[in-house]
Design a protein that fits this description.
By secondary structure, the chain is α/β, with parallel strands linked by helices. The chain has helices spanning 16-31, 35-42, 90-106, 127-141, 160-175, 197-216, 232-243, 266-276, 290-294, 333-341, 349-352, 355-369, 375-400, 404-423, and strands spanning 46-55, 61-72, 78-85, 112-119, 150-154, 224-228, 247-253, 256-259, 286-288, 297-303, 319-324, 345-347. A seven-stranded mixed β-sheet has the order 9-8-7-6-10-11-12, sandwiched between helices. It has a five-stranded mixed β-sheet with strand order 1-2-4-3-5. Bound molecules: nicotinamide-adenine-dinucleotide.
């Protein structure tokens, strides 16, 4: 995540853990899971809180608190990012770990769900301080980590460099310094990262939009799209839509938005953002506010910024045919109900943005088997996974007449329940 996203509100209005539990309960009820199975897969398997003392550049020692949660490992090692942010809480990490469990199961990759976080303000820390924090945090959560146990990845305000430090610390402490690349994904290509990982989330969202368009008989060519959050995920989707002759009529970032009825020139806009740090001021476009952008009439609305972008206050103004959740948790449960009543086709986050973790899985496979896949192979495999996952969720949605969100949760939860039962973990 870019540093500018740190200016977002520190406390989301809805507790992420409450939402995660509610979504689970809905899926478990629809699947008629027994109370025994429910209680086995609802709660995190392991929760670790670590004390992370760091010598700051000033010479003083500051204590940070860090967490690592393994929600479920019935289907494979725990998988999930590490977040550095002042508003990180244990509840939030537990919710995100739970979402990872269902997300990995929806795309049917053999990983469980995990998540980590450190309560810190990376904006106020130097690169050296962040490196010391990362290494000390890694040492703290070391008992949980390993290519067959728990595999972190970047999340909000951590990046490939952070993963490089984690891999190095783990390799030094566990293997006398010999590299164990499979302990993290999203690392630099030079130490075993995968081609195509940077674009994977946006590309996965695009494949979902292609599939949804086929289902709803919307032609991509000439369609209109709006992207909230022109960052990693959002700019990649916008670019792919643009290259398939969809008109991306508005995008924004934390500093403001731009609108052009006939479609923005996305490659030029990407250069403008690279040069100036924002989409604001793009020549030939009009400025647009966040709320007006979300209410634009379009075929595809893609929230790709932060949680809780669409709430009960603005959901009624959404005029899109398809809402594709590139971000995690951009729609609150109350807003979800409004969108459903209004006939908006929602592609839920645990399906829509699963391209990132899917290519993380490809990275891990290459590391563990000492393989190298070229970009074509990574992209083809990603396309197959996203298309088949979308179709599986869509079949639940149409056969059982449930929302796409409930359908995705049912696919994920049922797979985890079956793996749990197959392993005989029940009393
Ligand atoms: P990013 O930092 O690259 O992009 C986020 C963008 O959102 C930035 O351009 C920022 O300026 C903008 N933004 C922040 N607040 C905003 C606001 N209020 N209105 C409009 N724009 C705003 O981050 P990213 O990696 O693209 O992640 C975006 C979302 O996608 C997050 O919810 C993240 O959890 C989710 N996600 C990302 C990945 C991935 O691999 N990158 C994978 C799964 C999910």
């Amino acid at each position: 995540m870019n540093i500018d996203t740190l200016s977002a509100p520190a406390c989301p209005p809805v507790s992420a853990y409450d939402v995660a539990l509610q979504n689970f309960q809905n899926a478990a009820a629809a699947l008629e899971l027994s109370d025994d199975v429910k209680s086995l897969i609802m709660y995190p398997e392991r929760v670790l809180t670590v004390n992370v003392p760091v010598r700051m550049d000033s010479g003083e020692i500051t204590r940070f608190e860090g967490y690592r949660v393994q929600h479920n490992t019935a289907r494979g090692p725990a998988k999930g990012g590490i977040r550095y942010h002042p508003s990180v809480t244990l509840d939030e990490v537990k919710a995100l770990a739970m979402w990872m469990t269902w997300k990995c199961a929806v795309v049917n990759i053999p990983f469980g769900g995990g998540k980590g976080g450190v309560v810190c303000n990376p904006k106020a820390m130097s690169a050296n301080e962040l490196e010391r924090l990362t290494r000390r945090y890694t040492a703290g959560i070391l008992p949980l980590l390993g290519p067959g146990r728990d595999i972190p990845a970047p999340d909000v305000y951590t990046n490939s460099q952070t993963m490089g430090w984690i891999m190095d610390t783990y390799s030094m402490m566990k293997a006398d310094g010999y590299p164990i690349p499979g302990v993290v994904t999203g690392k630099p290509i030079s130490v075993g990262g995968s081609l195509g990982r940077d674009e994977a989330t946006g590309r996965g969202v695009f494949h979902c939009l292609q599939s949804a368009s086929g289902h709803l008989r919307i032609s991509l060519k000439g369609s209109k799209a709006v992207v909230q959050g022109f960052g990693n995920a959002g700019s990649v989707v916008a670019n792919l839509l643009d290259s398939h002759q969809s008109l991306v009529i508005a995008v924004n970032d934390s500093r403001g938005g731009v609108y052009r009825e006939d479609g923005l020139d996305i490659p030029k806009l990407m250069l403008h953002k690279e040069r100036t740090g924002s989409v604001v001021g793009f020549p030939g476009a009009q400025p647009i506010g966040d709320e007006d952008l979300l209410a634009l009439k379009c075929d595809y609305l893609i929230p790709a910024a932060l949680e809780n972008a669409i709430t009960r206050d603005n959901a009624g103004r959404v005029c899109a045919k398809v809402l594709a959740e590139a971000a995690n948790g951009p729609v609150t449960p109350e807003a979800d109900a409004i969108l459903e009543t209004n006939g908006v086709f929602v592609i839920p986050d645990i399906l829509c943005n699963a391209g990132g973790v899917t290519v993380s899985y490809f990275e891990w496979c290459q590391n563990e088997q000492h393989l190298y896949w070229d970009l074509y192979e990574v992209e083809k495999r990603l396309e197959r996974v996203m298309q088949s996952s979308f179709n599986e969720v869509l079949n639940y949605h149409t056969d059982r007449k449930v929302s796409m969100r409930l359908a995705a949760n049912m696919v994920g939860v049922s797979r985890v329940a079956s793996s749990t039962l197959a392993r005989g973990l029940y009393p």
